[in-house]
Write a structure and sequence with these properties.
- The chain is mainly alpha-helical.
- It is built from ten helices and two strands.
- α1 crosses α4, α5 runs antiparallel to α6 and α6 packs across α8.
């Protein structure tokens, strides 16, 4: 079972435990897996969980995407299959419509913006390093179609010596297992990666002990009184926030420009617009259309 699926299982088990503690399920529900997964108990659990009644931290928004509800049903199906217990699950909520992805022109504009070091000549050094990291990140996303969790899992060992290929460990979408892909990287992405790796080397060299192998590391210190130095592996939430903030600045700067269409601020939308080129044996060169193109 993948780490992501295992975390979902623990989350559902925690919710079901609270459902038992709150007397939402039948008194004999803990006698066996078959008793726990009766239609009445499953329906009672899902109704309370989908409403948010079993959350540890109360929901601050009334807006629900349905994503958590679908995960609960998937995990219940996995648990039931593992225990050999037939289970009847209420119908899944309909999946939300996918949001629009950037056009080819929007992708080119975005990469040109981040690769041009648009943080400005008077920006703080950490801000400039963050923009260099983001340029490499955007290039990798456009070339590989990686999710944020897959991005932060990339290490230096996953890159070929000349930076023309990268190993991506794909997160499983359903069930178990993990797929590993070898993806070709375009010339603009290679240039951005080379620049970032040079910056990264200076950051991790200041750390004591064995330096991290993660490709993406923090560019500034943090924590109480700067207790966390730069150069530590960065979380996917930081990368997503920086991407959204940078795209927001780009949209503001270009608002009103002839032909400008605002870029979506989600990495997920950018990811879905990519066209990865898998490598079989030798690296294939990306076409201009597939690359995170430089200025036309």
């Amino acid at each position: 079972m993948s780490p992501a699926r295992l975390a979902q299982v623990h989350w559902v088990i925690g919710e079901m435990t609270r459902a038992v503690q709150d007397d939402l399920l039948a008194d004999d529900c803990c006698q066996s897996a078959q008793q726990l997964l009766t239609p009445g108990n499953v329906a009672a659990y899902l109704a309370a969980a989908d409403r948010g009644d079993l959350r540890v931290v109360p929901r601050t928004s009334t807006r629900q995407s349905g994503h958590s509800a679908r995960i609960r049903r998937t995990v219940l199906a996995v648990l039931a299959a593992t225990a050999g217990v037939p289970v009847r699950l209420p119908a899944l909520p309909p999946a939300p419509a996918l949001r629009d992805t950037p056009t080819a022109r929007q992708r080119a504009d975005l990469f040109r913006w981040v690769a041009s070091d648009s943080s400005g000549p008077y920006a703080r050094p950490a801000s400039r390093r963050a923009m260099i990291r983001l340029a490499a990140l955007v290039g990798v996303v456009l070339d590989t179609g990686s999710r944020t969790g897959e991005l932060v899992a990339i290490t230096l060992d996953d890159l070929s010596d000349d930076l023309d290929q990268v190993v991506v460990r794909r997160r499983p979408q359903r069930g178990y297992g993990q797929r590993t892909d070898l993806i070709a990287l375009s010339d603009p992405t290679r240039a951005a990666l080379k620049k970032w790796i040079n910056i990264r080397a200076g950051l991790v060299d200041r750390l004591s002990g064995t330096p991290p192998r993660a490709l993406w590391v923090t560019v500034a210190g943090g924590g109480p009184c700067g207790s966390r130095p730069p150069g530590l592996p960065v979380g996917h939430d930081i990368l997503a926030r920086q991407y959204a903030a940078t795209v927001g600045r780009l949209n503001y700067a270009q608002s009103g420009a002839p032909g400008w269409r605002p870029l979506p601020v989600s990495i997920e939308q950018l990811r879905r617009s990519s066209k990865p080129i898998a490598v079989a044996g030798a690296c294939r060169s990306s076409t201009t259309e597939d690359m995170p193109a430089t200025a036309a």
